[in-house]
Amino acid sequence: MNKAFLRLVAEDIQHRFDKDISDIAVVFNNKRPITYLKKHLVDVYQQAIWSPQFYTIQEFLSLSSSKIQASTISQFFYLYEIHNGMLAQEGLEPETLEEFYPIAEIILSDFSQLDYDLVNISHIFLELSDNTEIELAFQHFTPEQQSFIRQFWQSFSIQGHTSVQKRFLRLWRRLPRLYQAFKERMHSEGQTNYPTIYRDLADAKAENNNFVDQFKQVLFVGFNALNNAEAKLFKQWQEQEKAIFYFDADAHYLDDKLQEAGLFIRRNIYQSGLTNAFGDVPNILGNRRDDVHVYQSLGKISETKLLYDLLLKNQDDSKTSAILLADEGLLVPLLQSLPFTDVNITTGYPLIQSPIYGLLDLWMNVQILISQQNKEKIPYQLLETYLTHPMSKVAKQQRQLIQSESAEKQLFEIDVKDIDVSRSILPHFFRKLPKAEQVIPSLITIVDNLLLSLAENDRIRQIESNLLMETKKVLNQLLLGFSNLGQLSIGFQIGLIRKALSPISSAIEGNPLKGLQIMGLLESRCLNFDQVYILGANEGILPKTSNSPTFLPNNLRKAYGLPILENQDALSAYLFYRHFQYSSDINLFYNAVVNESSSGEESRFIKQLEFETNFNFVKYTQQQPLQFPTQPQELIISKDGEIWNKLYSSFIKNGKRISASAFTSYLQSPLQFFLKYVADIKEPPSISQEFEMNKLGTVIHETMEELLTPLKAANDFVSTEWLKDKLEIAEQVVLKQIGNEYLSSFNAIEDLNSLQRIMHKIATEYVKMYLQYDIDQYQAIRIVELENTEDYILDFPISINGKIETVSLYGIIDRVDEVLTYDGQTKLRIVDYKTGSDTVSFRNMDVVFAANTENKALVQTLFYAFVYEQVSGLKDLEPHLYVARRMREDGTLFRNNNGSLVLSDQTLSEQKEAFVAFLRSTLEELFDQNVPFKHNPSATVYPSDPFTLFYKYSVKESAVEDE
C-alpha cells in the first residue's frame, strides 16, 4: 500500500524543519487527524522532541478574539427577541418560540454562510424591481451572475403576490436589519461565533489581526473545500510566507477538469493560488489494479449483517481498519451487529436513539397530561414504560406489585395519586409540577439523578455520561433563555426542549490508533486505513440529493458563489475517491431494495470508478432463497417420558380434575389442552383495552347468583312475579359485581371507566333478559342448586393401557331449577348462562359428539348434567342454554336445525347415553400414549387465544390442504 497521507506530511515536516518544530502550528479541519499525525511524527523522528502546536481551523482562528463563543441556544434567543421586536414595530403579531425555532435555524445557517463567504449582507438582500436596477447594482458581476439574479427576482415581479410570496418578501426585507441587530446584540453580551470571527479576520477587523505572528510557520493539512474567508486568509498568509499547505490529492481527478472530486483542490491551487507543499501529485488511482468488493444487500439492516460475516473473516490485528458510514443512520444497527467490541466510534451516537431520551420524553409526555391538561389519570402504557425502562431501576417487588394489581383491576388508566414508584431512581417521576417554571429544573434533577445512579453502580459508561452532560448543558442554556421571556406554558416549553435536545449526540471513544474505527465519510479526511468498509454507498446517499433548508434561493447562491448542491456532490466524490488512493482492501455495501428512502442503486461514484480506472470491481448479491420444507414444522408433543409421567401422575394418581371447559379444550385442540392443563403454561397478567368476554361472563354469573339466592331457601315453588322486583335492582347488583371483579369499590356508574361502563350496560341488559325470559315462560320456579363449585366431583372409570383407572370429572353448576309452565307442566332443568356467540341449534349429534365440535356449549351442558345426575341422584335433567343474543328467537332447549330433534324426554335420555360413551372414548384417547398432543388444523383459533403461536404451522398446513 502507498504511504499514508499523514506519514508523508510527517516526513516533509522533518525534512523542512528538522527538530525545530515547537513554534509551528499544524491546523486541520477536525480533531481526528491530530492523533494520527502525532504518531507518524514519533515514528519519523524516533526520538523525543518538542511537539508542534495542533489546532482545528476554528480553534486556530479563534485565537484572534477573546470573546466567549455564544451557544446555539443563546443565539436563537437573541434572534427571537430581536425578530419579535421588529414584528411589533411593523404592527404584526409576534411569533411563538415553537413557530420561530425552525425559521431561526435557517436564518442562522444563512447568516453563517454569508459570513464565511464574505457576502455583502445589504447587497444580497437588496430589493430590485427591474432589469435596469440589476444592471446598475450588479455591473461588476458577470452576465451569467446577473442572469441568475434576474431569474430570482422574476418570480416576484408578477402582479399580485401570493400570501407565501408576501410573507417571504417581508422576511427578506427584514433580514439585513436582523443581521445587524443580531451582531450588535452578541457584541454587547461580550460574545461571538465562528462566522463572525471568520469575517472579522478577513476584513481585518479582528481584535488581533496579527495573531499568526506568534508562530514561525502555520501548516494547513488536508484542506479541500475552502470558503471565501479561508481562501482570502490563506492566500494572505502565504504571501507573508507564514503558511504552508498540504493537499491530499491524486492526478486522476486533479488534472481532469471534468472530475468533480478535484473541483475544490483545483480552485485552491489554480484560482486562489495556494501552493501544494508536495508539488506535483502522483497518479495512484490510474495505476492501481486491485480488487474492490461491492456487496448488494436486501435492505439497510442487511448491510450490517453482511458486514458482520466479513469482519469475522477479515479480522487482522496487523492491519488498520475503518467502517465509514455514508449513511450515518446505520450507526445503531451497526453497533448491534459488530462481532467484537474493540472499536472507536467518532460518529455521534444520537441522544434521541438512546434510552436516556426515551425516559426524558416519557416524563414530558406525562407532564403534558397531568400538568398541562390537568388529567388525574394517565394511560397504563406510560406507567408500564417507566416500570420496564432499564434506567428507572424500579425495585422488582414494587414493579411486580404494580403490574399484578393493575392487571387484576384492569386499570388501563391509572390515577396519578395512586402511583408509587418510591423504590426507583426517580421516585417523583409522576409528581405533578407545582408551576410551569419547574419544567427545566425538574428535567435537570432527573439528569442529575441518572448520573448519580450510574456512579453509584460503579458502571459509568462514557456514552451515557457524555449524553447526560450534554443534555444538562443544553437544559441550562434553555433555562437561561426562558428566564427573560415571562410566563410560558408547559406544553410550549416542552415543544422547544424536544427541538433543542434532538441534535445532541456523543462520540463513543476508544483507542483511535488501535482496533476498528467507525466514523462518517467527512470525519475520515486526511486518514488512511488498510481495510475500509463503506456502508450506505447508495445513489441518493452518496452523494446526497438535497441541501439543507435555506432562504437563499439557488439562483442567488450561484450568483454570489455560495455552496450549491453540485458543491456537495464534489465534496462527496473527493471523500470517496481518496480512499482508493491508499487502502489495500476496499469493501462497499449498498441497499438494493427500492422504497421511499432508497433508490436501490449503487452510487454513481462506484460506476464512474469502474468505467474510468483499472480497479477490478467484484460484485456480490445477497441471496435469501425461500425454503419450502418437505414436512410441516408442526409442534407435536409425544406422550412419553416426562410428558407421560406428568399427565398420568397429575390426573390419575393425584386426582387433578377435568372440567367441562378442559374437556372441550381437548376436543378443539389437544395441543391447547397440553399447554394449559399439563404444562400449566399461564398467560402473564396484562392490561387490555379490549372488551373481555370472560369478565363479562363472570359478572353476569355472580349477579344472577346474588339475585336468585333468596329463592334457594324456599322449599316450594315461588311465583315468577317475585322476579320483577329483581329487575329493579339488577343495575346496582351488576355495579357491585364489576367492583368485585376489578378489586375496587364503585358507588356509581360515574366511577367506572369507559370499558367498564360498556360492561355494565351489557351485563345489566343480559341479566334483565334472563329474568324476563323466566317471567314470560314460567308461572313459578324453585331453585335446586346455584353456582356450586365444590360438591359436584365424579370419579369416572376409563381404560388406560388395558387397565381400569378413574379420572376426576368436575362440574360447576350455574343453576339447577324446577319450573312450572303456564300449562301446568313441571320440568327439572340444568341452566348454563352464555354471553358469547353460542347457539342451541345443531346440525346432528354426530357433529356434536366429535373432535373440534361446532357446539361446545351443548357438550359442556351435557357434561354438567351428567356429573350432577351421577352425584345428586336426580334424573331427567333438561339441558337449557341461556344465550342472551338468541334466546328470544331460538328459546333455550337444544334442537337440530330443522326442529325434528329436541333434546327432551326420551330423546334426551338416549343422547345422554351417547354422550357418556363419547366422553369415555375421548378421555381414553387423552390417556392413549400412541396418540400425541397436536393441534387440530381445522379448529377455530380466536385472536384472544394466548397459544396461537404454537399452532402456527398446523394452521398453515391446513390452509394448503384446503386448497
From TrEMBL:
Q: Which domain of life is it from?
A: Bacteria
Domain PD-(D/E)XK endonuclease-like stretches? 657-937
The name under which this protein is listed is PD-(D/E)XK nuclease family protein
